[in-house]
Amino acid sequence: MRSPTLTRQILGLAVPAFFALVAEPLFLLVDSAIVGHLGTPQLAGLGVAGSVLATAAGVFVFLAYGTTATVARALGAGATDKVVSAGLDGTVLAAILGVLTAIGVGFGAETLCAALGADGEVLHHATIYLRISALGLPAMLIVMAIIGALRGVQDTRTPLFVSIAGFTLNALLNVGLVYGLGWGIAGSAWGTVVAQYAMASALVAVWFVRLRASGATPRLHPAGVLAAAANGVPLIIRTLSLRAILLLTTWVAASLGQVPLAAHQVAFTVWTMLSFALDALAIAGQALTGKGLGASDVDGVRAATATMIRWGVIGGAVVGLLVALSGPLLAPLFSADPLVQSAVVAALIVVGVGQPISGYVFVLDGVLIGAGDARWLAGGMAVVLLGYLPVVVLLRLNADALAAQGPVAATVALWLGFTAFMLIRAGMLRVRERGDLWLVTGAG
User: Which among 22, 81, 259, 369 would be 20 to 30 A from 269, CA to CA?
Assistant: First the structure.
């Protein structure tokens, strides 16, 4: 992994991953833009339901990350059988976890939304959206697992094509169901569910074609499924800590009033889209780190990490500037309420300023995931959560005072607090990257 070969490897993985990852949060962007014009309560309800849904799916992100690391290491070490089995085992595990999670979220939708502070009309809309969207959780998790396997074999182009097709279908269905049939927020949820199952079906077909081409016989390995579940526990802990941070932020937003909550939904959706865009380098980091360590190329891994960190910070600065300047153009796309628009513009300035930090964080997170450093990541994120709690408590205790200053001031304070979380996270990752304990070689 040397330049210019290193540059070509990174770009070959990161560029398709970039477009695929940008397409993924566009699901929520389309929902937000369409639902936002139904009314502020609907948009606020989508914000609450979206947070619960993202948490329910995000807890199992190890299905993608863990599979990528396992498959990439096996690829680097030349263990073809392990490459094949890891992808299939991860997909079966995803289907099982998806069904169980869908049942829990669907039946507990109203309770979960109320726990985040939603009430009245906002709670009504949030519950409708979440109950329907929960049906798509099995498909969401299957998509995660197969995309993780494809990334492990250094294929980020197939997820790109499937994501573009899925986004297009989602947009068409949302417009047709929400406005054409007049289903309201329920139409937005149904459109997304259908698109998710279409993507899952396409990716399952792609993986089986790849298995046949390799000459391998698809077989279910119960022990492999159990091993994938056990190996995912540290990443689940890491993800639960991260999701707790995001849910706490939404909890604070709900305490600031309906307008700041709606503005936070828009700003967080944009932040998520930017996160996925910058995460393209993290995807490259996962694949190249896993493959490099599998081949015992420690120097190459170090060189790739330094390059991707540099690109992450620069890329974050560029997209951050664009977002900070484009707030007045973006805000009207999500709401006709002038108060919501003003709060969104202010929040996006803070979002933009924090993007270089995000670029740094996402690259290092991806590198350590690719290295299989899951146990440290679990403990590190738990420490970050503890460090963020005082910020959350301070904002919550002063919620009334912030709300009294107006929705713009309240939303800015909320996002400054969230930026503090990213700074704490960056510091933790930097400490780990400077050492050598994560540079474990071999097939794993």
Answer: 369
| Beta carbons of 294 and 75 less than 8 angstroms apart | yes
Q: Model pTM?
A: 0.74
Q: 257: which residues sit within 8 A by CB, 6+ positions away?
A: 403, 407, 410
Q: How confident is the model at residue 400 (pLDDT cuts 50, 70, 90)?
A: confident
User: How many CB atoms within 10 Å of residue 339?
Assistant: 18
pLDDT higher than threshold 70 for residue 323? yes
Q: With bands split at pLDDT 50, 70 and 90, how would you rate the model's confidence at 443?
A: low
Q: How far is CA 165 from CA 205, 215, 310, in A?
A: 15, 29, 32
- Listed in sequence order, the residues at least 6 apart from 329 whose beta carbon sits closer than 8 Å to its beta carbon are none
Query: Rounded to an integer, what distance in angstroms lies between the CA atom of residue 414 and that of residue 47?
Result: 15
| 444 SS3 class | coil
CA–CA separation, 228 and 374 (whole Å): 13
Asked if residue 407 has pLDDT above 70, the reply is: yes
DSSP 155: -
Here the tokens at position 94 are: 């995803």
Exposed, middle or buried: residue 161 (CB in 10 Å: 0-12, 13-18, 19+)? middle
Radius of gyration of the chain (CA): 21
Mean pLDDT score of the chain, rounded to an integer?
83
Give the CA count within 13 Å in the CB-facing half-sphere of 12: 13
| Sequence letter at residue 32 | S
Secondary structure (3-state) at 257: coil
Q: Where are the beta strands (DSSP E) in 343-405?
A: none
Place of tokens 């980020």: 156
